[in-house]
Amino acid sequence: MVASEHFAGWAFVTPGVAIILLFGAAPLIWSAVMSFQRSNLLSPSTPFVGLKNYRQLAHDPVVAQAFGHTLLYTVLFVPGTMIVGLFLAVAMNRKIRFIAFYRTAAYATMAISTISEAIVFIWLFDPSYGVVNYFLSLVGVPPQQFLNNPSEALFVIIAMTIWGWTGFAVVIYLAALQGVPSVLIEAAAIDGATPWRTFRRVTLPLLSPASLFLAVWLTINALQLFDEVYLSTQGGPLNATTVLVYYLYQQAFQDFNFGYASAIAYALFLAILVITAIQFRIGRRFTHYRS
Amino acid sequence: MTATSAPSRGELHSARDGLAPARRRWRLPFSPWHLVLLPATLVLIFPFAWLLITSVETTGEALHFPPVLIPHVLRFANYPDALSTAPFGRFFVNSAIVAVVTVAANLVLCSLAGYAFARFRFLGRTALFIVIMATLMVPFQVTMIPQFIITKWLGVHVLAGVGINHIGALILPNAATAFGIFFLRQFFRTLPLEYEESARVDGASRLKVLWRIVLPLAVPALATLAALTFLDSWNNFLWPLIAVTSTSQMTLPLGLATFQGAHSTEWTLVMAANVMTLIPMLVIFFAAQRYFIRSVAATGLAGT
Fold first, then answer.
1. CB–CB of B227/B288 below 8 Å?
2. Size of the A and B interface in Cβ pairs below 8 Å
3. From the CA atom positions of chain B, what is the Rg in Å?
4. Given B138, B173, B257, which is nearest A28 (Cβ)?
5. What is the structure's pLDDT at A2?
6. Which terminal residue of chain B has fewer beta carbons within 10 Å of its beta carbon, N or C?
7. Does residue B42 sit in helix, strand or coil?
8. Per-residue confidence at B13, pLDDT binned at 50, 70, 90?
9. Could you tell me which residues come within 8 angstroms of residue B185 by beta carbon, excluding any fewer than 6 positions away?
10. Hey, what CATH topology would domain A54-286 get?
11. Domain boundaries of chain A, sorted by first residue
12. Is residue A184 within 8 Å of residue A177, measured between CB atoms?
């Protein structure tokens, strides 16, 4: 009986676990080792070079730039998406006419791939023929260069990714809103609280677990921004949209500096861990769990 | 405007329940939330609409400023033109194969492993589970370089079909995920033990218990895993970009990105191609909207 349970256990887990060990666990260790090696496909030998890759990383001006862009992107994208999602979810959390249509329109952004999304937004923000420049001209704003302008490009990418994540944020907030007991809202109203005060003091605290989840989830994704940058700007103009993962991709699969790229990957991993831990720490203080 | 509808109705209302303050004399004939939701929805669907419009414009109208908001003639020929410029049918088939096989493999392998971790006691269970959990948080970028080297090696030394530049390379590394195993294990542990125990006493094998008793009870969890895996697989870009270079093995996102790179000024063709890649996903999404929405909401609520 016991022996057969050992056998059954291993038989059941082996196929799945083998794949995760081969493509998840082993690469995790291997890239850690590689980050201490010189490994660039040009020479077959991969000598250990100690902390050289990490020292190079600390002094690489492009890494500093990429880190700055990634942070700026994250700081604007995450709250932006959360505010848009919360606002729409609150507006949609009622039984009015056409509500299914409104909700479906928001959900539809979830079905679109990052590539489709990026292509549409490149076209919308085209400097010569783009419809956004046309709308701006209607209110007297001169045509903008958008993705060709170093001081505007990152903001266009922020706009397109907020649009792309709206459906996700709406779904999360709508689900959470439906868990808010209407008794509490009614009680606050009877006590004479204005709708805004009720929202601030009752609804918002009850939504805090969903907010924390969204903040963490969106941040993890924001720090890994790649697809939109690859498609729309390739990190340009003048490195203005070079984010960490894009630079990592360039180092790894355009220049084949596997050692250095692995060091960047681990720096990114560390950044994600630290930022997520901070979010949970701060979030816990403002998060109210019902039990 | 419409804002001044029937003050009598407001008065009648306040007279009836006697509580509503008298100063609320006028009300909209519709919920004021429409004033927020309608413009917001227009902004949300405008990119879709503009995509659709451009896809049936002539090049002359597309490359015109100010933009032609309503095309004079609908040029549907953009669609066959795009199809003849790049093999979008091939990309679609590749995407479908990769997504369907990945989902099926995940359902089978994660069910087996998740069930064993949930119910069996075997040597090394805890250690293995910890190793799997350790990979759960790791971003793909950290493992992609060794994954590339391993995939390349497998293709050369073991089986060409799972090597670099084959769609098998897009399936195998994702055929089982730490998330899937963890997610199903958590679900299986919430199921009551009694059914399984009595089936075992009646002589059913462990595999039969899983197949006949546990999995039918786990259909909601399996559907969630399937929906999330499908979305991930269908939209994946970075790994196909690294693993595949020849056109015949490309999936839709990679094929579309390559097409856009090669024809970046032919916006009508690019948009027709974009519409064609988008439609299948939109159809699947709306057909199974409940499942997708519930799945996404479930991951959010699980996190809370």
1. yes
2. 284
3. 27
4. B138
5. 65
6. N
7. helix
8. very low
9. B113, B114, B115, B117, B118
10. MetI-like fold (1.10.3720)
11. 54-286
12. no
CATH architecture of B83-302: Orthogonal Bundle (1.10)
User: In the prediction, which pLDDT does B12 show?
Assistant: 41
What are the residue boundaries of the structural domains of chain B, listed by start?
83-302
- In the Cβ-directed half-sphere of A146, how many Cα atoms lie within 13 Å? 25
Instruction: Tell me if A23 and B257 make a contact (CB, 8 A cut-off).
Output: no
Contact A156, A228 (CB under 8 A): no
Contacts of A217 in chain B (CB under 8 A): 300, 303
Interface pTM, i.e. ipTM: 0.91
Q: What is the DSSP letter of A142?
A: P
Long-range Cβ contact pairs of B255-259 (< 8 A, separation 24 or more): B255/B86, B255/B87, B255/B88, B255/B90, B255/B91, B256/A115, B256/A116, B256/A119, B256/B91, B257/A115, B257/A119, B257/A230, B257/A231, B258/B86, B259/B82, B259/B85, B259/B86
Q: Find, in chain B, the residue whose alpha carbon is nearest to that of A213.
A: B303
| Chain A nearest-CA residue for B131 | A25
Average pLDDT on B82-99 reads 93
Chain-chain contact of A16 with B110 (C-beta, under 8 angstroms): yes
What is the average pLDDT across B150-168? 94
| pTM, to two decimals | 0.89
For residues B176 and B101, the answer to whether their CB atoms sit within 8 Å is no
Nearest CA in chain A to B116: A9
d(CA A62, CA A69): 10
* Nearest chain A Cα distance for residue B12, angstroms: 22
Helix/strand/coil percentages in chain B, nearest 5: 75, 0, 25
Contacts with A94 from chain B: Cβ below 8 Å: 31, 33
Q: Would you state the structure tokens that stand for residue B29, as one six-digit string?
A: 């004939």
User: What DSSP assignment string belongs to B97-129?
Assistant: HHHHHHHHHHHHHHHHHHHHHHH---TTHHHHH
Task: Record the tokens describing residue B193, joined without a space.
Answer: 């033990």
